[in-house]
Design goal:
Layout (H helix, E strand, L loop, with lengths): L17 E5 L28 H14 L3 E5 L9 H9 L6 E6 L8 H7 L3 E5 L5 H8 L4 H14 L3 E6 L10 H11 L2 E5 L17 H9 L4 E3 L9 E5 L4 E5 L12 E4 L4 E3 L8 E2 H6 L4 H13 L8 H6 L5 H4 L2
Helix pairs in contact: 1-2
The chain binds S-adenosylmethionine (SAM) and iron/sulfur cluster (SF4).
The site of iron/sulfur cluster has 12 residues, from loops.
Amino acid sequence: MSEPVNLLVDSFGRKHTYLRVSVTDRCNLRCQYCMPAAGLNWKEKAELLTFEEIEKLTRLFTAMGICKVRLTGGEPLVRKNLLRLVEMLSAVPGLKTLAMTTNATLLAPQAEALKHAGLKHLNISLDSFDRRRFQEITRMDALPEVMAGIESAIAAGFPVLKLNMVPIAGFNDDEILDFAHFAQKHKINVRFIEFMPFKDNQWQADKVVTFAEMKARLEKHFHLEAMDQPQGEVARDYALRGGGTVSFITSMSESFCQSCNRLRLTSDGSMKSCLFFPPEINLRDALRQNAPEEALRGMILACLQGKPEAHPPAEEIAAAENRSMIEIGG
Ligand code: SAM
Ligand code: SF4
């Protein structure tokens, strides 16, 4: 069967196939790089998209060209009955991959059920194997729960399982090798994500550990073999001799804007064409006013046409009035 026509092409010719859906702005951790220490007001339940609304929008986006959806947040597993949403989205025609990014604190008891319900790709975020350090970065003492979550995910056998780590210079970058060893031991993927600036997240240029630095450090201890980069995939992937893979998300040192295929939906129903581009278009209100599908499609295309060619330099982003990562959805 031929692929449906992708209508989600922006003014720079980029085709969009990947939608990141934030299901909540709440989180049970308080990672310093993701959210300010104070001043965030959680959204009221009525402001959040309902599961039915998320499903409706997913159907619409999928009919326009999206084939991969990632559930994120905030922490997606703090949203009650998330399993039901996974079941609902798994049945959306044309949706080939349903993925989730989680801090894994609540994962252990439901990893198996989530996989059963149709979740295919799972990314787990962890920045340190040291309990005190974990507590410092997340402002919560939850490393044992996260490690239990990782174990259950490995046992459940997700087709794709990745660990996300954000190395911060002088804080946890001495654990890069430990993470690579973990990838090798468990035959999974570890993604090193360059520290990105958001308002009030204490970002400084000299805290970023760049792709080149990380790779050079790893190469002193591991043999890294470059892997083919699937189309639209922003990570640079390397196989580790002995098993496992490592990847690098180079958003700061080598922007991948020219091949960006992502769109975002915030938990309150706003569509964002770029993580670092503040303008949004609210689809929830239109949905609740029973806007016809044609009107919703028009709003989606208008938002897409406003997508910038590339994001501004990091220092400019750090000073800009954008929502924090936790509010947008990572
Ligand atoms: N709560 C879930 C979690 O932590 O996996 C999902 C949401 S979180 C915002 C998604 C991802 O964004 C996490 O892997 C986190 O490490 C990453 N992230 C948050 N703030 C970041 C920053 N300033 N720079 C780089 N990555 C960041
Ligand atoms: Fe929560 Fe994830 Fe942000 Fe940490 S990175 S505060 S776990 S949303």
